[in-house]
Amino acid sequence: MKAAVLQFPGSNCDRDMAVALRQAGADVTVVWHKDNGLPDGVDLVAVPGGFSFGDYLRCGAIAANSPICKALVAHAERGGYVLGVCNGFQVLTETGLLPGALMRNMNLKYICKSVELKVETAESAFTEGYGAGDVITVPIAHHDGNYFADEATLASLRDADGIAFTYLDNPNGSVADIAGILSENRRVLGMMPHPERAADPAQGGTDGAALFRTLVGQLANA
Amino acid sequence: MKAKVTVMLKQGVLDPQGEAVRHALGALGFDGVEGVRQGKVIELDLADGTSEATVTEMCEKLLANTVIESYRIEID
User: Fold this and answer.
1) Which residue ranges traverse the bilayer (chain A) (predicted)?
2) Which of A7, A72, A157, A209 could form a disulfide with A199 if both were Cys (CB 3.0 to 4.6 A apart)?
């Protein structure tokens, strides 16, 4: 199973993402933002956390228009798998691959702590290692994680079982406590919490490991 | 030629920064500030003859996120 981790100026979770995917058994290539294409045969593209392009203009906006993101969108449109975490989630909403937008946290503070998430659906390659309703503990570290979508978008997310994770105790003002969402074809996941920071006992928690294990396992068997 | 693009959060989208500014003004003793909205201004130096339609395209593709933001274009 081949995975690519995108790297922008200002990415800072690219290495953690690569380590988590490798530990789960993926063959990982890190890809620079100016590259025009992804490596041949990539099954999964991971967009890591960080502060791509210094969060200039809006978080993720400049990265979303970089050459590699054109290849990312083409990959998703071919039915390829995409995982966007934190800044990666912001990039995915900016490309339009996922609906809604991420705004400044309601309390205006940068928040870095572990939070409890409820797994809202186990019906995806990302979440089937959990049970629907499971509560997992995963760190967040963001200033702009306040998910916004209008009523119509929220209704279609709910109808499509597209809400992947919610916060038990909403830290940032996200509408409907949303922490992560799936695309309509369930192959694109964007989430603000960092599963790659809870993937090894040395990190103080392993609740994120199942996401990588089942995702890599699924794609290896596909 | 110059164009000025003003980007604001849409009405109905909560603006916590504007709210914080409103509170701070109240704390300074400015009574009667009923609402504050904070946005950004982007000034563009453009080749003469650039059409407003082109600037609109810039706003739609990059300068504003129309999910949460509205924009206004002024051309000098």
Assistant:
1) none
2) A209
- In angstroms, the CA B64 to CA B7 distance is 6
**Which residues on B lie below 8 Å from A173 (Cβ)?**
14, 16
For the record, the structure tokens of A120 come out as 């809202």
The total number of structural domains that make up chain B: 1
* Whole-prediction pTM: 0.95
Please give the structure tokens belonging to residue B46.
């453009």
Give the gap in angstroms from C-alpha B55 to the nearest C-alpha of chain A.
16
Distance from the A129 Cα atom to the nearest Cα atom in chain B, whole angstroms = 32
B67 closest CB neighbour out of A100, A105, A173: A100
In this predicted structure, the answer to whether residue A6 has a pLDDT above a threshold of 80 is: yes
CATH of the domain at B69: 3.30.1280.10
Q: What is the ipTM of this complex?
A: 0.88
Domains of chain A: 2-220 (3.40.50.880)
Residues of A labelled catalytic: 86, 194, 196
CB pair distance less than 8 Å for B16 and A101: no
